[in-house]
Each structure stands twice: as C-alpha cells, then as structure tokens.
Amino acid sequence: xxxxxxxxxxxxxxxxxxxxxxxxxxxxxxxxxxxxxxxxxxxxxxxxxxxxxxxxxxxxxxxxxxxxxxxxxxxxxxxxxxxxxxxxxxxxxxxxxxxxxxxxxxxxxxxxxxxxxxxxxxxxxxxxx
Length: 129
Prior knowledge:
Blueprint: H1 2-15, E1 20-26, H2 28-39, E2 47-52, E3 55-61, H3 62-72, H4 76-91, H5 99-117, H6 123-127
Parallel strand pairs: 1-3
Antiparallel strand pairs: 2-3
Helix pairs in contact: 1-4, 3-4, 4-5
C-alpha cells in the first residue's frame, strides 16, 4: 500500500505544481484525539486534512478504512488510497458538508482513481459509490 500511496501522491502533487504533503496513518483512538483537538468534534472520522499554502497534512484512520473496505467489499489498500485522494481534495478546497458537495467530491475522487487505474487495478473501489 505504501508504494501505491507514494505513486498516487507524486502524480497529484506534480499536477498541483509542487505541493508538499505529509500523510499520517493512525488508528481510531488517535483520530478521535485529532478530531477533538483540531475540529472540536467528538468521535472518529475517516480523514482529516490540514493545509496552508502549498503545504498540507492528511490524517487517515486505517481502522475506519479496514471496516469500510469490508463493508464495500474492496481491498483495504484501495479504500486507504480513496482516503488519500479525499484528503487531498479537501486541501484543494473541496468540501462534503452538503449532499450536492458530497456528490461533486465523490465524482472528483472517481476521476482521480480512474487516472490511477491506468497502471493499477483499483476497479472495485471505483464501483462501490
């Protein structure tokens, strides 16, 4: 998964014009702490994104990715890559706080995943949403 994530990031960062990105893979326990500290929300979440200028950080809950991979019958690494893309979209101003915005963001995620599928089989995760 790490190699796939790095390749995906390189492609996205190149297209963004030199964007620098840090990814933190955490469990639900740490994600709850981050969510409370930085967003003021209780409970865990799948992805948190923090950015300033052309530097960003994304925290991804691997526990949530594992549960959702089972739910959607997708390989774990594909679900985790979806979260990487989702976090990157947040850094570029996409939001999912309304139904319409969620749909637009999911469509953009799928476009990015299809681009990655040219060299990697991510087809199951593309068809689940």
